[in-house]
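Hi P.,

Sorry for the delay on this. The queue was packed all week, but I finally got your sequence through. Input first:
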Amino acid sequence: MARPKSAVSLCPCCGYQTGRVHSHYVRRLADLPWQGRVVEIRLHARRFRCANPQCPRRIFTERLPATVRPKARRTTRLGESQLAIGFAIGGKSGSRLSRKLASAPSKTNVSLSYDSE
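Then the structure:
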């Protein structure tokens, strides 16, 4: 199970730094395949309490922008890879190539709505 190294996190609302951990949970992320096998990263994520008393957000989840977008179920590099295949080939042939590379998107992710947030 993967864990972030940082002991503190910044509140996405006010920018205050805090190390007060509220709780933990496991995020399951799809990643690029390794030697033709599907890879799932289990990330031990934390929820923090904001240290700023004026902040409207009391509890927030740590952000890992280089690895995964908020609420995403796949890593950014897998999303970029699928997006490149979709733009280059698209359609059923792109889907076949993705399956061959062991990085096929699920039926709910076929639209590749990567830039929504």
